[in-house]
């Protein structure tokens, strides 16, 4: 079967060849409807952008991440940088959280300078955006800490979020807490759903009903931990423990407790998730579920290397690394008052 050409894509989309070229190069001045038609035609026709016959490596891996400021992101970027050096690459980091970030322009820029592979860490990327990156750049693509429903065609590296939720909640239940709040990240992120399912599973194991009124979904930031933590601590029947979706939200719960004259862990036990650098700076140090972020970053870059060396088939590689409960001083046995 002959290889699809730009003319084939243009005919299928009902546009001109220059319009197709604009879409594929990430240029502006193309309507969203036209862009969608061209991308659909690219998929249908199986068009692949021409690359040099030997596809020489350029020694660069791109990391596109939706924020640089959180402790979680800092550890992840540091791990990715070390991993890139280990596997013979330089790392180019781009934040999609910038107010001037434009995915189409970024794709066009990467096409011009070339890259050996891309690691995506995006909490809000939809499948169309991911498909556009994969189809227009034609390099190994790995999702790190993937969100949303997993596409079996893509390679992913994550952590055992469900087991982490089980361990965090089991720890609190073993300390005698039965009113345990869950403050998660956005409801549409897979890691939040997995951690919440682990929270529910631990309750079932202990034969204790979880209270739906003690569940909230935030944005993985300090503010949501403080707001939702305060909201639940103000109830007539407040929780005696909180399992937070990440360490930043746990820090917000600390703030809410302090504002109400409550002490951690004497009056409220708190468990976070990630084991970021923040944990040791909180007072008391935070009990949390450790994600092996360094190892996750290394595996993501290694998968790029492996797919360059041995191109994957129709199915991507899925890797889940173990989470670990790190017990510090923010949890204590429940004392009935």
UniProtKB/TrEMBL annotation:
Domain of life: Bacteria
CDD domains from the UniProt entry: HTH_LacI
One Pfam family it belongs to: LacI
Domain annotation HTH lacI-type: ranges: 4-58
Keywords on record: DNA-binding, Transcription, Transcription regulation
Bilayer-crossing regions: none
InterPro entries attached to this UniProt entry: HTH_LacI, LacI/GalR-like_sensor, Lambda_DNA-bd_dom_sf, Peripla_BP_I
Gene Ontology molecular function terms on file: DNA-binding transcription factor activity; transcription cis-regulatory region binding
UniProt name for this protein: Transcriptional regulator, LacI family
